[in-house]
Amino acid sequence: MADQVAPENPTPAAAPTVRPKQRVSHRGRSAGGRASSNQQEGKVEEFEPFMLMPRGPPPLTEYLDIFDVDVLKQPNEVNKQAHHTHLYSSNFLIVRRAQEFQIKITFNRPYKPAEDKFAVEFVIGPVPQYSKGTYIPVFPTAKRQSVWSGRVIESSENVVTMGITPSAECIVGKYMTYIGVETPYGIRRTRRDPNTDIYILFNPWSPADPVFLDDEEEREECVMNELGIIYHGAYDDVSERAWNYGQFEFGVLDACLFVMDKADMPLSNRGDVVKVTRVASAMLNSRDDDGVLVGNWSGDYMYGVPPTSWTGSVEILLDHANSSGTPVCYAQCWVYAAVFNTFLRCLGIPSRVVTNFFSAHDNDGNLKMDIILDENGKLDRNRTKDSIWNYHCWNECYMARPDLPSGFGGWQVVDATPQETSDGMFRCGPASVAAIKHGQICYPFDAPFVFAEVNSDVVFYRRRKDGILEVVKVNQTHVGRMVLTKAVLHSGRRDITNQYKFPEGSPEERRVLEKAEEFGCQREKSSPALSDVDVEIHSLDVNVGENFDVTLQFTNRSDQRRTADVYITGTVVYYTGVPSGEVVFKTPKVKLEPMQSKEEKVLVRSEDYMNKLVEQRNIHFIATGKIKETGQIITAMKVIAMHHPKLTVKVTGSPRVSEEMYVSVEFTNPFKFSLENVDLRVEGPGVLPFKYKQYSVIAPGTSITWTEAFSPRRAGSTKVFAKLDCAALRQVYGETELTVQE
Amino acid sequence: MADQVAPENPTPAAAPTVRPKQRVSHRGRSAGGRASSNQQEGKVEEFEPFMLMPRGPPPLTEYLDIFDVDVLKQPNEVNKQAHHTHLYSSNFLIVRRAQEFQIKITFNRPYKPAEDKFAVEFVIGPVPQYSKGTYIPVFPTAKRQSVWSGRVIESSENVVTMGITPSAECIVGKYMTYIGVETPYGIRRTRRDPNTDIYILFNPWSPADPVFLDDEEEREECVMNELGIIYHGAYDDVSERAWNYGQFEFGVLDACLFVMDKADMPLSNRGDVVKVTRVASAMLNSRDDDGVLVGNWSGDYMYGVPPTSWTGSVEILLDHANSSGTPVCYAQCWVYAAVFNTFLRCLGIPSRVVTNFFSAHDNDGNLKMDIILDENGKLDRNRTKDSIWNYHCWNECYMARPDLPSGFGGWQVVDATPQETSDGMFRCGPASVAAIKHGQICYPFDAPFVFAEVNSDVVFYRRRKDGILEVVKVNQTHVGRMVLTKAVLHSGRRDITNQYKFPEGSPEERRVLEKAEEFGCQREKSSPALSDVDVEIHSLDVNVGENFDVTLQFTNRSDQRRTADVYITGTVVYYTGVPSGEVVFKTPKVKLEPMQSKEEKVLVRSEDYMNKLVEQRNIHFIATGKIKETGQIITAMKVIAMHHPKLTVKVTGSPRVSEEMYVSVEFTNPFKFSLENVDLRVEGPGVLPFKYKQYSVIAPGTSITWTEAFSPRRAGSTKVFAKLDCAALRQVYGETELTVQE
User: Fold this and answer.
1) In chain A, fewer beta carbons within 10 Å around the N or the C end?
2) ipTM of the assembly?
């Protein structure tokens, strides 16, 4: 009831049905837009008057004028050599922080330090501000200095050679260069000249920079090396993939800066390596934020490139940048890690790709992987949900951690593969490797998740009739069995497991796990009595398409007879440990005399598994069983990664810089079925940009040979490698080494 | 060149132009979908055979059968009283963790503990799993117990009263209840019966629960109180808003659980208060993740409800849930904080809304707010980008922090207002208040950002002609001037500034700032000489629409003459400190005799500001100037929050539970212009669900009276309050108190 005549509308305001756009204007909320783009250019006045000048600037003829600015950007000139940036194929000067570089300025007359006042000005982004580090003037005189120091190195006639040292915290990205001359009326500037633009990168060679890495060989490997080796397969049967990181390829540096622009990352944060790596770990996957790569583990790659087909990062980063940020299809963990590695090395952050074998992927962040058996000890597939990745790849990058107490700098885990972290976001790290080794998982970022990936226990439960789960066995050594990365400056492996954990069973290891529990990691406490009968699974190397035997090795350690009812299942699994099809199921009953050892063979025939194979052709065998006399449970697990045909890669011609030579890739289809829509890729770091070819069909027994001409871009030893990929046969791989002469 | 006839397609695979859908199937990546929905129900077999039964289950007549299950859910029954959940208007049983509740089971015959085997089973989500805490059987016998304990309290004839105690870490949400009887053939279950569904919440009353708060009055305020007071305005002229949190209103609990479902939060994480609060801080804003509320500070609220118009959380949460998760328009910080508070209290997490006056909103996370003056000491608006919010509201919630070293439990800051955190994500916290007070900002989550909000310095720079900024003044006391929250169990204020910081200038404060710097906070080091002339700004309370004086108070502390060239600007600002229109600019020249004090008045006329007012009607005065004799800079700042007309709210009738009474809201338009499209809202916690009315126009000088009938739902003292809101006049407010008798 309202005693007023004004028309009324008593319906409550409902939530709008149109979904509001996610980016509401910043008006009223922040002063001016955010400076979060390196591509946008702020306007810089050519004349900046000190007072009102109705008639515009007066003639300034008697003041210093600039004829030419040379930033000495040729690869063979002083700057790129001294700053380790000569390998970038780029038309611009590229230097590193906290290290002097030189520019030559030609004036209209000799420079007179006493009266002439000029400054070299560096500008980045749309709203240049001195206090935000996006506008930096540099002065030639010792008494006037800004956050970047400057000095006159040489002055002859009209030419001044000036030395400029960017601060160790300055923003990493692309700057515009101006020269401003101060006159009584105002500041007169040079015109915008793209030729004088300068990229400034992180500097692992400078002790002042948080990414300083005090080991020349490590820097050569983790910053300068374009050729990578990524490990996969099974921990006891490791395979390798070569990868072309291509951080120096034309356009890659701009593509990396574009990733930060796409992330809308404030420029003022881009000098902080912790923030840069964290933002990148989120941006490299397309979850949440339309990042670089779309993850796909389904086996169906119709709408993109199969993850197993890529040979390098260049194609991916350029696709993303050239499509103004459309996510690229498809990636799995090693693709994320490899592209992330390119991003990091390209910006000057020391980094490497590591592979963790048997990586726990536990989406509630506790330290248990649950395997559930029924009352008879048979695996209960429906109730077993956790999966252990046969391997998982992530990155380590090297940096100080000023945001943490001392002792946690050095290598840091970052992971761009979208996983369900307990934090619910698809990003991970940087997490200090030292903190993980010592169980100090209370420090950012995401340390508990990484800790679980290498330290989880595998817990076998027997499900009682009344629904309760009884722990029957705890395997504390299965997960995080081995962490590998490429060796420094040669192609061997490097086992860095001991940087993540103390030796299994050592007192230090126990203390670390207790420490981690203090910070909320839940572990399985009960330690059920060990069975007096053991079982192990063995097998020889297996080539895809062959029949093979799996051997169950039983050992009775008791002085009584034992009878084992055993269930052995062999299942084709994705590398994520997720089961696809079951290929064999046997239930042998084994009688064991006191102290007896005995073998039981299980035959697996090719027709049982060939039609079920997925992706990387792993067959996961689990043997479980119950000892009749004692009721104890015995278990064993083994992943068999099948070997597959190889590609033959040959290079012919004399390997000299910019002399033409040829690579030929040969393959013979060894199967009784024909291969369809076959992708073939070949590339070689520094010598051969990636090439792609498709064969619609390769009939059984037939061979193909693909030859391409190329001419090496630079000297040194490198590899040329190729991948063949199709739905029926993934990641067939071949490589050859070559050394290019000047 | 390929020596094979197969057709070829040498074009490289380009990135697909169709944007791939963000949710690729989990196939191959994880075993089965994630259990991240409380709404989906897992299938539970009515009969679960132990062996194959071709002919289906045999007759089970001789075994125990269940006639009835009573979960004693009436508000006056034992459970809700003991668990402090009697106020929830809900048709279901609602209890808390780590505390026993009772259910009555009626069997077909007396229960024989010796032979009868039954279990009460609780199931949550689509894939019930004992090891993930989503399937929990509870047994009546001491020797068979699961993670939840059970006992028989009383057994008379066919009726058994059972006591059930959920574990202190169990998942918070809605469970289904079954009773399973074990027979030799299998487990026989009761049918699904929604009447026996049970909500389990956090338990601040139980020492075992991480949210335990050992103070009954605090619990009454921070968990049970639906009536809130939220502070705003200026620190020296604080205003209040009453708010109806309405955490017990019908449907609100389900709406809160829906928020976690919308966030796709794994059920197994929902027992962890740290993870729940962190996910919620991201989900309550619509950035990144289509959360509950769309932020809008622009002054244009055409497509939704103006932030200043809301009177409570119920309308918002129900809108969101009923529109299957469409973000609700619009919110500003206090709306985010208020709705977040409802979420937290509803789930049983002790929480309160706090207001920080002069909150630094610094988007590069250092500790400086930059104000830039030109050579003459005049404010340079174009170069001054940082803004200081006149106030900012966030939440504190109370919990242990098992993920951190000891000493950092207790109150934690969480903030749902989307700000540019250095982490780039629109979420914040939980960050330990104790850690912030002691500068221990190396612990998660987002502590450095909160630390900056209360500890930043205001730095005045003079911009030299050559572009360099000279620090001329550092104000270390302006930011984080005062932190307020509602007092416990009465409507007074509580100043909790000392929980965030040590006293300004104390040695502890200095140590804390040094500690924070160790963790990467950058502060302004230079401390320029203090001027020997001071200036302050004073003014009396101002009612909107009036002319008023602003007084500049000058004091010359030197024994010489001083001349000050002063610039004073008054600018209408949003509460975010962002300038809108300039209303006055004067440049008095003041001559001061030695040791003299002098006043200078500046008149501000209503016609200068009335047409420029925005939102909350703050005028921000900044006086800056230069002392001719010394060249020193003097500065002063003051925000004047204008007072505005009030609403008159009256209730008539006798305030008794469920007896009808009336509320009338009166308003007179005091302005010379008419108000259009006026929103009017009224509500009262526990007595009056929100009502809405709109007037298309209120002419100058005319009055409106709006009367509504209502009948109180429960006894106790509460408030009824109303808000009037339109484009020309925001958040006109009125309230009245009443005490309802039984």
Assistant:
1) C
2) 0.84
